[in-house]
Amino acid sequence: MPVEAIEAEVTAQRLARLNQALGSGMFVHVRNMLHDMAASDIALILESSPPRTRQVLWQLIDTQQTGEILEALGEDLKDHLIRQMSPESVARATAGMDTDDLAYILRSLPDALYKRVLQSMSSQDRLRVEQALSYPDDTAGSIMNTDTVTLRPDVNLDVILRYLRQRGSLPDTTDTLYVVDKRDRVLGGVRLADLLTCDPTASVRSIMDPELESIPVAMGDTEVAQLFERHDWVSAPVVDEQGKLLGRITIDDVVDVIRENADHSMMGMAGMEDDADTFGPVLKSTLRRSLWLTINLFAALLAASVSNLFEGTLEQFATIAILMTIVPSMGGVAGNQTLALVIRGIALGHVGQSNSRWLIGKELAIGMLNGLVWSLLVFVAVWLWKNDMALGALIGGAMLINMTVAGFAGAGIPLLLKKFNIDPALAGGMVLTTVTDVIGLFAFLGLATLFLMH
Amino acid sequence: MPVEAIEAEVTAQRLARLNQALGSGMFVHVRNMLHDMAASDIALILESSPPRTRQVLWQLIDTQQTGEILEALGEDLKDHLIRQMSPESVARATAGMDTDDLAYILRSLPDALYKRVLQSMSSQDRLRVEQALSYPDDTAGSIMNTDTVTLRPDVNLDVILRYLRQRGSLPDTTDTLYVVDKRDRVLGGVRLADLLTCDPTASVRSIMDPELESIPVAMGDTEVAQLFERHDWVSAPVVDEQGKLLGRITIDDVVDVIRENADHSMMGMAGMEDDADTFGPVLKSTLRRSLWLTINLFAALLAASVSNLFEGTLEQFATIAILMTIVPSMGGVAGNQTLALVIRGIALGHVGQSNSRWLIGKELAIGMLNGLVWSLLVFVAVWLWKNDMALGALIGGAMLINMTVAGFAGAGIPLLLKKFNIDPALAGGMVLTTVTDVIGLFAFLGLATLFLMH
Question: Where are the transmembrane segments (chains A, B) (predicted)?
Fold first, then answer.
């Protein structure tokens, strides 16, 4: 067995043993097994189980672990489980959770439940959360924790060291303490590593990194993730417009953003919701997939009505009907290659105003070059197959047109969608395929009608 | 301007200014601008520039920054630039680079260049790198650094604190020091935060976390990334089969793995290479995209030859030809939805042996349910459009068959491919579309032939 399968295997074995115990009704045994597991492992098992098993497992879970497990679950399943809990249990489960995670959970609750959960909280927690909820979703503020430890610049390190020892602990994933002035404006950062390695008689100011970059609280979370990736940060301070320290963002939340964005690109291109639950119930899943299929039905009917324009040609030449799917298909694949490239380029921050014209030009050139190569190939293939050179030339010509359009549209459509603030990862594929289908059919059937019908 | 566009805007402005300076031949000015930028920003600008601009920029870059810039570049562009450098400059640029990054670069070099780069290195660097290169690509070993700081368990913290102060610095992204026994086996970990907050008279053993998980050196890097994500680690020790400490993996390398895998899923589904260079040269890009288009041409010809079987029907009924793209199109979209879900489930480690049968069953059920809904809709649509109830019933029947198959195939194909160790993200989409095209055409044209031809 390849070593990389071991971890998955361990989960599989656990699942198998859990299922066995569940199946034979040994609920106490299951409860004990769950009690010994880390919250993140239980979350994984819940994600990997069909609805009925989940339901039973959820009942058997230690209420003390509920909060941590919820934190580790995907959005879809998390929502589902929370909606079944009483507001009091939600409040209890989420007490002590990181502010950003707590806000994230509350944000997704229905209004009535949300208010009741807030009421069930301690006043301190409520204040903390209401503050966090005031930042819009998908901004730095929404993934920020408020558990920062701050230092003053003109203190010596030995004082800091004594203070930390009195404090007794530091928040999770603390790698840097922030140095602030009297108005809480960030002056720099001191890494824990430097606190340990520098001379204790030095001052904070002398060892701090004054170039420490701060993140504006309203910056988009994708932007934040790009900064973390580019600079290999573990944490970064978040500031308001005056440079006042509001909190910090840690790499674990950034990893979640990266994961979400990646899921979004991949699932979005297939017309699925980012966080669709792999083992969710059938009816709910069916409903959620209908929007995309509805749009596609219209696109397919549009393509069919293009063919309908050429009914006369199709009536006379069955061969045209037989071959007519080839041109749209090749255009679709070529266009999708370009689309994927451009969407990723946008996501990585490589594509912007300054170079989008060049990019469209390049993809247009590739489309034409591709068109030449493949029209030649399909010309030869069809000529040999149908023993009809004219037919080969027709389909080749249509292919050249469609692949050129595909290159242009594959780059142009996502850039255009982005300009209108429509997410290219979501809408791009469907718009593109419609274009390449319609143009491909038009080109082939049009050329055929022009040259074959007299 | 939305705040999330600010960072992108800054890069765009810089690019614009750089381009302006380049265009007017102010190379000294450009060199100065580059000199003041961080390596990661220069890398971003290189990634975002067309080939010619890149070439000029690359000449103007400070050789001292070359190594850091290379580290931050995408694989495709990095390879391209390194192949233009002399072995000596590569050796110079990569001196002092993290072992894993250095090994990563060397791994991608052509053999001749690779050997000459190794020869140009200091013997110490060479040893370090040859060790790193002995671990297979895509394993924990290949993303591991060897710069660990280790402690003995029976020493008091004040001794450690004195040692660290003498040492003067710690490797980047160090959050935990590893506690090892005399044979270098990992006993636990001490977080820097604990060193700062605990009583200095305590022993290492008393404050260390004995439950610290170690990563086997042969574990797959995707697996490693899943562990980091699940447990919110910043770093983790890597051990050999005897539990001996070999090095450590840090979150920045894990983020690269997550990014690569995400790109792989998204780009792979469109038939693109993971790290395809958005602004790469036209000819190279065209060549790289041909494999997928070749495969698709065969798939399209296969679909055409299915239609060819029903030439007689198509000859007699042009309407059948007009409508025949609808069924494959809907099946393709429905199948792709399932495919994306399952591929993501596999990537997250949620789908395994124990639940794959359930998953296929669920997707089959969704496919049938979808099939019922959409066959009814298309039945009505076609009946109204073509004023032909029988035709509507035919296309509806074919739709039901194809969408049921699409659900089954969308889940079954990636699971089957995975079983044969073929990457489902790469091959899945093409195989699936071929299946839904062929079955869709077969079902519709077959039913039409059966019921309309006498």
Answer: 291-310, 316-343, 364-385, 391-417, 429-453
Q: Are B301 and A326 in contact (CB < 8 Å)?
A: yes
Tell me what pLDDT residue B188 has.
Answer: 94
Structural domains in chain A, CATH included, are: 3-143 (1.25.60.10), 150-249 (3.10.580.10), 282-452 (1.10.357.20)
Instruction: Give the percent of chain A with pLDDT over 90.
Output: 44
The backbone region for B168, taken as left when phi is positive above 0, alpha when psi lies in -120 to 50, beta otherwise, is: left
Strand A235-239 and strand A245-250: the pairing is antiparallel
Give A358's contacts in chain B (Cβ within 8 Å). Answer: 50, 279
Alpha helix ranges (H) inside A98-200: 99-107, 111-120, 123-133, 157-167, 192-197
Which two structure tokens, joined as six digits, stand for B435? 């299946």
Spell out which residues of chain B touch residue A259, defining contact as CB-CB under 8 Å: 229, 258, 262
Q: Can you spell out the DSSP letters for B249-307?
A: EEHHHHHHHHHHHHHHHHHHHTT--TT--TT--HHHHHHHHHHHHHHHHHHHHHHHHHH
Query: Above 90 in pLDDT, residue B203?
Result: yes
Residues 6+ apart with CB under 8 A from A71: A39, A97, A98, A101
Give the dihedral of Cα atoms B339, B341, B344, B349; nearest 10 deg: -110
More confident of the two residues A255 and B95: A255
How far apart, in whole angstroms, are the C-alpha atoms of residue B432 and residue B409? 7
Per-residue model confidence (pLDDT) at position B1: 36
Between β-strands A215-216 and A235-239, what pairing exists: parallel, antiparallel or unpaired? parallel
- The answer on pLDDT for B2 being more than 50 is no
Whether complex ipTM tops 0.85: no
Question: Whole-angstrom Cα distance, residue A27 to residue A173?
Answer: 37
Contacts of B421 (CB under 8 A, 6+ apart): none
Task: Give the helix/strand (H/E) hosting B20.
Answer: helix B6-23
Only one residue has tokens 């970064």, namely A236
Burial label for B384, CB within 10 Å (0-12, 13-18, 19+), is exposed
The partner residues of B150 in beta bridges, in order of sequence, read B178
Per-residue pLDDT, B289:
84
Find chain A residues with C-beta within 8 A of B192's C-beta. Answer: 175, 192-193, 196
How many angstroms away from the CA of B115 is the closest CA of chain A? 30
Q: Residue B367 and residue B333: Cα distance in Å, rounded?
A: 11
Whether the CB of B17 is below 8 Å from some CB of chain A: the reply is no
Question: Do the beta carbons of residue A254 and residue A238 sit within 8 Å?
Answer: no
Q: In chain B, which among 409-448 make CB contacts under 8 A with chain A?
A: 437
The type of residue at B405 is: V
Return the structure tokens found at A354.
């300054």
Minimal CA separation from B119 to chain A, in Å: 30
Q: Which helix (H) or strand (E) covers residue B71, if one does?
A: helix B66-72
Do the beta carbons of residue B303 and residue B438 sit within 8 Å? yes
Return d(Cα A345, Cα A351) in angstroms, integer: 5
